[in-house]
Amino acid sequence: MANAFGEGSNDDYLKYMIYKLPDDYRDQKLKLVPNGMEIETEYQEFLAAQIKSEQGDNYILETDAGEIKIAKKECYSRNPSKFDGVDDMSQLTQLSEATVLYNLRLRYMKDIIHTYSGLFCVVINPYQFFPIYTHFMINKYTGRRKEEVAPHVYAIAEGALTQMRDLSAQFRNQSILITGESGAGKTENTKRVIQYIATIAGRSNAAMGDIENQLIQLNPMLEAFGNAKTVKNNNSSRFGKFIEIQCQAN
Q1: N or C: less crowded end of the chain, CB within 10 Å?
Q2: Which residues pair with 74 in a beta bridge?
Q3: Distance (Å, rounded) from C-alpha 172 to C-alpha 161?
Q4: Residue 212 in marked binding region
Q5: 183 labelled binding-site residue
Q6: How many whole angstroms separate alpha carbon 174 and alpha carbon 179?
Q7: What is the CA radius of gyration of the chain?
Q8: Model pTM?
Q9: Is 8 annotated among the ligand-binding residues?
Q10: 180 is in an annotated binding site
Q11: Would you write out the chain's pLDDT as a tens digit for each of its 250 residues?
């Protein structure tokens, strides 16, 4: 699985993992803050808007789609533009459903599918393949703290390995919970966690070099007993899955 996209490169890391603010984001900040709001359209999408005026309990807002009138109670405060596309949503000064979805959408529209929310890593299924599970990416996250690299499920796996190897904690067990609705990508992300752990373990123990393929090949057997086609997913896991990986100190 690690070779699915070849060796990978730093260009892939910069394109698919790093969110860059537009060059004119300072102008956007002056335009949208503090009067910037986010409104919910009929498509359940939150958009940035600017208050033009107030009419009782309503705002007259200027959006890219034109001028609209909307009740104040349906609006949400917007974060300063410098927080657009932020890696960790726990940094948002205004935290609401609107600001979370808005931030996730900004990143998703640039093909960046990983975003932190405190201790959690939110991964949006892009329904296409990105070269972000390569040998280069594994090396990029090996031995690095979560804060030193862009959000990735590999960073979560690396954090678990680091905690497990902590001598002061006497090699305490670690758990990674992967959850989401049907088609969210739980099975695929489980494979990526296994891929990372098996690859790192294989480097220090030649006998474990093939453990990654062994673990991945186990999935079709499990899927044969409990997978089914759904509206959102042609191969949906219809059962809970608990995987335990036992590691030695060396």
Answers
A1: C
A2: none
A3: 10
A4: no
A5: yes
A6: 16
A7: 22
A8: 0.84
A9: no
A10: yes
A11: 344 546 788 999 989 999 887 766 554 433 333 346 676 665 557 778 888 888 889 888 887 777 888 888 888 888 888 888 999 999 998 888 888 988 999 999 999 999 999 999 999 999 889 999 998 999 999 999 999 999 999 999 999 998 888 766 666 888 999 999 888 888 889 889 988 988 887 775 555 556 667 776 777 887 788 888 888 777 788 778 888 887 776 6
d(CA 103, CA 123): 13
Flag whether 209 is marked binding. Answer: no
Instruction: Judge whether 184 is annotated as a binding position.
Output: yes
| 22 cis-preceded (ω within 30 degrees of 0) | no
Q: What is the DSSP letter of 113?
A: -
Q: Is 146 annotated as a binding residue?
A: no
Domains of the chain (ranges plus CATH)?
Answer: 10-18+112-237 (3.40.850.10), 36-80 (2.30.30)
Q: N- to C-terminal Cα distance for the chain?
A: 24
Is position 185 annotated in a ligand binding site? Answer: yes
